[in-house]
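Input.
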Amino acid sequence: MQEQVLTVSELTADIQSVLEARYPSVCVKGEISNFRLPGSGHIYMTLKDTDARIPAVIWKSIRMRLAVDLQDGMEIIARGRIEVYPPSGRYQLICTSVTPAGEGALQLAYALLLEKLAGKGYFNEEHKQPLPRIPETIGLVTSPTGAVIEDMSNVLERRFPAARLLLFPVKVQGKEAAENVISAITYFNTALEGSERPDVIIVARGGGSLEDLQAFNEEAVAMAIFRSSVPVISAVGHETDVTIADMVADKRAGTPSIAAEIAAPDTGELLRHHDTLMNRQRAALQTKIDGTEQQVTSLIGSYAFNRPQIAVDQLEEEIHHLLRLMQQSVGNTIRHVETGLSALAERLVLLDYRKTLERGYTLVKQGDAYVTSKTSLDRGRAIVMFHDGEAAVTVPGSGSLPGTSFEQEEDPREC
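Output.
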């Protein structure tokens, strides 16, 4: 029988179909060596133990989601599939997820992430947000069951029952824990608005081993806490447990109960503080009133304050003086005018023609004119005026005598 001859490509294709069909999903534990991260963003490395080694690849899209930074010497558990690469005639492990293997690996991953975030300043005090003094709404990120939520609720009810509690239930351990915590922090920051949005967030869980607390030592959780615009209090584990989340948070609490005490003020202390402030304000106001009254009293008695009144009094005195002068002046003027009028009246009396008539003189009037000379006397009727009455006379013709004679007419009133 003639032996079948295969080409290299045919043989490689057969091997590829067998291996890839036999190992579509595999989990391999080994130590990292020959670690490389070129510009493409993919990780190329070798997994080895004491007796064998296998090439491994982590594509960039998977690397971006890794919770730890890998390096030579780290022992990991890689999950993925076997793939044959024909151009080089070798098989390799295509990793779909990577986790540190064992407590030692977790400690190493913790230390590496701690160093990385410290170098970026994630733990610096200037990045810490101040906690609200009196929060209206408190967001809780923890398991909905167990002692943690009960302890925090009791503390908040005792200290500050006015606060509104919003619980975002999460898993605090296992593969989905980190994703749950990130979703909760994101929800409280973006999904709620106005008064619905919490003033502070408490991320809490009870104690446990380093592996139990691993979700709070992942970089993605640290990033979510660091980027939160709402202040975050981290209370993960017991007093002696310190996670990456604790150090990135705005405030770390040793236990969930302590976190609740930090987040909410004590109502009794608030009322006592309020009374103290009111008393201080009252005393300060009374002191200010007393001081103002003293100032007013001092001003009222001061020369500067009374100067306007003094000026007014002086002006009144000047006005009264001017009035007296005006009265005197007007009185003098009136008396002077009265004297002048009296003199004029006396002169008028002296000039009265009736006084002259009383001394024996008469007035002759023809028509509307008085006769003042012989030549102006015409023939005809004339009126002779005496001091005690009038008489009508007739003037004869001018040729009778050199002197003119008169003939008195009978007074018609006597007929």
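The mean pLDDT is 85.
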